[in-house]
Task: structure prediction
Amino acid sequence: MAERKRSIWVFGDYRNYFQNRVTLQLLSRANDLAKAIDAEVCATVFGHEVDEWVGEYIAHGAGRIYVCDHPSLKFYSSDVSVALMEKLVREFKPEILLIGATAFGREFAPRLAKRLKTGLTADCIGLDINEEGLLVQTAPAFGGNLLAKIVTPERRPQMATVRPGTFQEIPHNHQAKGEIVSVPLPDDLPKDRIRLISSERQQAREQRLEDAALVVCGGRGMGSKKKFKNLYELARVLGGEVGATRPVVYSKWADEDSLVGQADKHIKPKVLFSFGISGAIQHTAGIKDAGFIIAVNKNPHATMMRMADVAIVADANQVCTALIRELKKRIRT
Ligand SMILES: Cc1cc2nc3c(=O)[nH]c(=O)nc-3n(C[C@H](O)[C@H](O)[C@H](O)COP(=O)(O)OP(=O)(O)OC[C@H]3O[C@@H](n4cnc5c(N)ncnc54)[C@H](O)[C@@H]3O)c2cc1C
Result:
């Protein structure tokens, strides 16, 4: 049998397809990298009735797709996907495996890397090939103050998770052709330890937080979930989106998708409102590219106040409520 070409694989995360474009972005970058090492670009699709996603990935640059289609794979499960992917990687030996740094990818990738006894660079914001043909994985370190360039010289595959929005997807090409490899469901996959009782689609944002020209960010200083809700009203009146700090997300005042900082989203709004946020480095790592910053904090010495173009020493909730009231008045007149 002819020896297979080297390959770069992309894990197909098609959940919430219209918002979650990271698989398409990775396919695009994988095509650039493949040229440098003369490799082919492959994707995996695990699930049930997944023809639509297979077609999409081919149209966006995958030359071959490994498809495992079975009713038991209807919902994404980390345990099952890790076991299935481990088998495929051991059999087909990709050089590089790229995974979106989504909530699922962040759970799935480290477990898989551990099973395969290979390295993993998490949350990459750059991928290149060096003169030795190795994948150079660029990831922020030390709260985003340094960019580390990491290679995996010996272990395979070279594995990376990549932040959504890092690369541009290739436009859909309906004439693209790809090979489909049907993978039977292995008998010895583990049973999922999580039983899904129900699922509910998250309300879509008007626009992605990363793309919003105006962001209203809130922190613990907002005081409560009820008060935090006012920020959504302010964002609505201003035509912006709401971001949050980690304590806010952990307290469930805002959903996970709102987290701004080292651990999640890097935003670049022209105008950023920051309410009741201290300015810890893990948060400010995500707002470095913001244009004009208006911060409201009771403490004039908070780091966030020093970073701001306009610093208002006041109660965050009072300022938020007053702004909503005044803006609404102006809209009416
Ligand atoms: C590995 C790691 C990763 C992390 N990643 C992230 C990340 O990605 N994003 C992130 O945000 N955090 C992250 N954190 C947490 C981070 O270190 C901070 O704890 C967090 O950013 C603080 O959030 P905060 O500013 O809302 O809360 P606090 O630090 O508690 O600040 C609250 C602020 O509100 C002000 N305040 C209080 N009451 C009022 C009021 N009534 N009116 C006005 N101001 C008021 C206070 O003066 C204070 O400045 C991470 C931490 C670690 C260890």
